[in-house]
Amino acid sequence: MMAPTVAVLGADGYLGWAMSLHLSRRGYRVIAVDNLSKRQWETEVSATPLAPISSMETRVARWREISERTIEWRNVDLRDADQTQQLIADHRPDAVIHFAEQPSAPYSMIDLEHAASTQLNNVLGTLNLLFALNEHAPDCHLVKLGTMGEYGCPNIDIEEGWITIQHNGRSDRLPFPKLPHSFYHLSKVHDSHNIMFACRVWGLRATDLNQGVVYGVQTEETALHEELRTSFHYDSIFGTALNRFCTQAAVGLPLTVYGRGGQTRGYLDIRDTMACITLALEKPAEPGEFRVFNQFTEQFSVAELAGLVQRVRAEYGLETSIAHIPNPRVELEEHYYNAKHQRLLDLGLQPHLLSDTLLESMIQWVEQHADGVDGVALQHPSVTWTGGANRYLHPASERDGVAAVRV
Amino acid sequence: MMAPTVAVLGADGYLGWAMSLHLSRRGYRVIAVDNLSKRQWETEVSATPLAPISSMETRVARWREISERTIEWRNVDLRDADQTQQLIADHRPDAVIHFAEQPSAPYSMIDLEHAASTQLNNVLGTLNLLFALNEHAPDCHLVKLGTMGEYGCPNIDIEEGWITIQHNGRSDRLPFPKLPHSFYHLSKVHDSHNIMFACRVWGLRATDLNQGVVYGVQTEETALHEELRTSFHYDSIFGTALNRFCTQAAVGLPLTVYGRGGQTRGYLDIRDTMACITLALEKPAEPGEFRVFNQFTEQFSVAELAGLVQRVRAEYGLETSIAHIPNPRVELEEHYYNAKHQRLLDLGLQPHLLSDTLLESMIQWVEQHADGVDGVALQHPSVTWTGGANRYLHPASERDGVAAVRV
Prior knowledge:
The structure is a homodimer of 407-residue chains. Helices cover 37% and strands 19% of the residues of chain A. With 407 residues, chain A is α/β, with parallel strands linked by helices.
């Protein structure tokens, strides 16, 4: 039997690259697709990864040398309908894993231009893909990365994509209502509706993975060589709260909690992202099915995460302070949150829970690259939900009157 | 007190033009805005209105002559962020009524290009407007035209935008789940989510009107002069089922019902559209409120509408046949449908229900313009939900091998 062909879209990103390696190692034929726009966005907002990331050419060559496996690298822009059609027609993949979206909520809140380009990039890219699949690979399994942030924080349990509603003596299973957190999260909601429609009307098959916040600096494969490394962001645009706290701990700065810190979200280890997506590939959605999994393993509030990092440091005799700073986002800081995440466990997921050991290893990894930490980008949110970009957004070299806190 | 300023976006359309006249007559200062793209789309798919429509310049001049009132006409493209900012900054309107969207489901299903341009036109136009309002007129009341087709046909009662869900012993009021019928209807769902977010995060105020299918060839104001006429479409792209049936009755062709005809939707008279929107303007949403009204007055199935037309003609001794043709759409043909529409009644709406008299007057109006009816466009759906455009889409002059059934 021939190895299944999987196109990984957004293969130059944090998860896309790790996924490409993971699947290649497991014998899939991997077509790694990207247009490299994430690197441009990083440069634009002066938020490059903490440790340098090799070019796709170097990564793929290094992987071939180490593994004797070939990842086929294609520079394709999903915003271009013809390129997208050609990609799917050329390879007729068995599955497509679609990470190829602008992934940052703050980036989408900079201003109108960034809100519009985020929705255009994400929604039109996915539309182009849906039409290409319908024309050239209608049986292909689309695995689409969504986000738990599509749901927002409702005052009821969050189900996995669909909810059975009892109302006035009748009942129906309907899409779970969404209260997305930003123009970026909105773009994912729009995608979900478009994909659901393509499944219902054209009979495409899709798995929408509403993923939590991913942590972890490496997988088995990315750890094999520094040229196979994947990206790590600690800044307020492309970073996450946990990455920020680990970096702040590593360089001895206070952990900055937005507001009261009661914001609770789902989290998972990058190795579990690899496992979840592999499980979804191995048991694809049925033709016409729009399947939704909530892809995370544990819930934490932001204050709990800061407390965990503080405790881990204390075990090494290091004191870490926590600073509550004004919340740049408009979001609830105390709320009910109980999101279901059973369906991937049912498929066999064995979670890596967040442990003191992992946290300490993340902090140690940052310490090795501490020379590259930009203290301003680390300590100051550069975009607010009501005012857009502030003076901290611009590249360090252009910051006007802002002390460059190089650590 | 100065008259309130209302910007009517999409003022060249079927409802936008009638609305501009209606408000002007009632003393509002009306800024009529359009980029005239609907006329281009009509030409593109060879689906011009049955009776000729005057240019905006002519319409506005004629209205000034008849009413001694001025409608300020501005050619502005909402897809252009700068033009949109300038429009709102120049006029700082008290209210904006936003009709300025590609309004056809079949048009959005022609192919990828039309699906993408529909979503881009509608979603980015509305995004540009939201940012312009937030910057230049944050207290302005946005009245946005949505559609009942956003909801699809759930097996529970359809509430007005929000639903209180009881789930696992808890309760929340959440956005009503959506199962939209086409890429056009999806664009309206995307708009609704974006607007809801702008209200929640920025404190804008909006009324989202999920409107049913509008019928009627004229209002008090458009009837005053043929140069004040608004558009009437009977074709399968921009027309409605009721307009098609009236036209088929007028020219003596069979009424073509898609499939079994059990498709049930909400309907309203164009005069009630005028009244509903005026009521919404008079009692605006609160700051931060995202208010949703279901704007229709009666429900009918497609088969019921055909039966009504048949009965009205029989009263005049005319026999009309009904033909069930293959459904070009993917939709349920028998389903539960009970959509609430109480909130506009609570504001004082006094509905004009669909009467035999109105139906007969619509048919008579078509008879006066019967010379212009294109029998092919009338009898043959030109877009299917699974195959896109078919050979009937192209202009009559270019149809290959299709008998031009001029009536």
